[in-house]
Design brief:
alpha/beta, 7-stranded mixed sheet, 6-stranded mixed sheet, globular, binds flavin-adenine dinucleotide
Length: 444
């Protein structure tokens, strides 16, 4: 192989590192370019999604490269949600009917470090930190990077953009005219806060994801191995009760006292954290096509970033890597065939999870607190117990299976139709029985 036969992966985040592992296992030479310095040497960026929920799709990908056990050793399983009302006691709602299935809280930096170690440990992988892609010629695979030592040029046979929601590779394809994109930002942002350990122990139940649903906004908290919790506020960016409207320490304290009263005693640094931590943006990226001539392609958030309300962005990005590897298998490693095949298989699934993630925001910030929703979940769990394998909830299919996302949507629609028909049938039957009874009474 000459230098130009290398595959370049731009972005050594979650998807990029996993992709480098899968490609190296195929015997390919991989150059992994990352704009940041080596994250294993420093601390995580302040306020940038410190932990995330890893579920079956992500675990399935890690299992394929033998990394699941190592990652899970540092994970904290969350078997349900704890709902924190403004007043009254918190309420635990299990994710699965048997209360056993869990999503897993893991540190983003620990996961990234494990993947980086795995990629670097494979023959054929070289990692270049401090390399920000600034230029790309999709016709030749020529790339330009800004580095601390000045501009660096490189060339690769195939360039894969795994450089996240604000992808520079996508930006170059847009400028080249081969791709169109739409970016739909929510008028909500996110900000991280922290709940430290109390007397050396977790201050809340570490076996659950905590939600403070407040109708038009919410806060969630996930446990960390150091016994702290990372909280994320999902609030409107403008208007009343928004990030923009709350800026003085007194107003912040008043707002939390009114809407999140239990948090004031749990988080002594709340006001400082609130004032210091940045507000992140939330949005959905749609673009296409994801590839040009089998030479340049996009994976993960670079191709299809979604809002985080189903905890699936990274899981979905990992699933991309598994599917791309499968496409390379099926096409004998022919990139010109594999990249379009990958897009044709993944597109409807990534569109489906983008829709479900948006819909889940309403569920998390509003519906979970309603008694009707809670009865609905209990009925769902009862159905899952009664009809094992035949009725499976949407949450279960998304988080605890690898059923393609688009198939999840179709299957849930079928299940709802079936239930609707069963309910209508029962109503008819009850109506007929009622009429027979009335007639029976009239004509003894
Ligand atoms: C608040 C929040 C909570 C979330 N929670 C969850 C969750 O619970 N579960 C879940 O599955 N997902 C979650 N996600 C989504 C998840 O973080 C993303 O889907 C995932 O990180 C995507 O991985 P990626 O590798 O495609 O992109 P990224 O993780 O963003 O990695 C991109 C990499 O590319 C690098 N890069 C960027 N530009 C360049 C450039 N020009 N040159 C070189 N390198 C570059 C970046 O430095 C970075 O290392 C959450 C997201 C947010 C915002």
């Amino acid at each position: 192989m000459s230098d130009t036969d290398e595959v370049a992966v731009v972005g050594a985040g979650l998807a990029g590192c996993l992709l480098a592992c899968f490609l190296a296992r195929r015997g390919l030479r991989v150059a992994l370019y990352e704009r940041r310095p080596d994250p294993r040497a420093g601390t995580a960026e302040r306020g940038r999604s410190i932990n995330l929920a890893l579920s079956e799709r992500g675990l399935d990908a890690l299992r394929r490269i033998g990394l699941d056990k190592q990652v899970m050793a540092q994970a904290l399983p969350m078997r349900g949600r704890v709902i924190h009302p403004v007043h009254g006691n918190p309420d635990f709602q299990p994710y699965s009917f048997d209360g056993e299935r869990a999503i897993n809280s893991i540190s983003r930096s620990a996961l990234n470090a494990a993947l980086l170690d795995a990629a670097e440990g494979l023959p054929g992988v070289r990692v270049a930190f401090g390399h920000r892609l600034t230029g790309l010629d999709p016709d030749t695979g020529d790339m330009t990077f800004e580095t601390p030592e000045g501009e660096v040029r490189a060339r690769a046979a195939v360039v894969l953009g795994a450089d996240g929601a604000g992808s520079a590779v996508r930006g170059r394809l847009l400028a080249y005219g081969s791709l169109t994109e739409s970016l739909d930002f929510l008028d909500y942002g996110y900000k991280e806060l922290s709940i430290p350990p109390r007397d050396g122990e977790f201050a809340l139940d570490p076996g659950a994801l905590h939600i403070w649903p407040r109708g038009t906004s919410m806060m969630i908290a996930l446990p960390n191995p150091d016994r702290s919790f990372t909280c994320t506020l999902f609030w409107p960016t403008g208007g009343t009760a928004s990030f923009a409207s709350l800026s003085s320490p007194a107003a912040i304290e008043r707002h939390f006292a009114a809407h999140y009263p239990d948090l004031l005693s749990l988080s002594p640094t709340l006001v400082d954290d609130y004032l210091r931590n940045p507000v992140g943006m939330l949005g959905t990226v749609r673009c296409g096509p994801w590839q040009v001539d089998g030479r340049v392609g996009l994976v993960g958030d670079a191709a299809h970033a979604i809002v985080p309300f189903y905890g699936q962005g990274a899981n979905c990005a990992f699933e991309d890597v598994v599917e791309l590897d499968r496409c390379l298998d099926e096409t004998g490693g022919d990139w010109a065939a594999a990249l379009p095949l990958f897009e044709s298989r993944r597109r409807e699934n990534t569109e489906a999870i983008a829709r479900m993630a948006l819909a889940n925001f309403v569920e998390m910030r509003d519906k979970v607190a309603s008694p009707l929703f809670q009865i609905g979940r209990k009925v769902e769990h009862a159905l899952e117990r009664l009809l094992p394998g035949r009725y499976v909830s949407r949450y279960e299919l998304v988080s605890f299976s690898t059923v393609p996302y688009a198939e999840v949507q179709r299957r849930v629609r079928r299940q709802h139709r079936m239930l609707g028909a069963a309910a209508a049938g029962s109503a008819l039957l009850l109506g007929a029985l009622g009429a027979a009874l009335v007639n029976g009474r009239r004509n003894p």
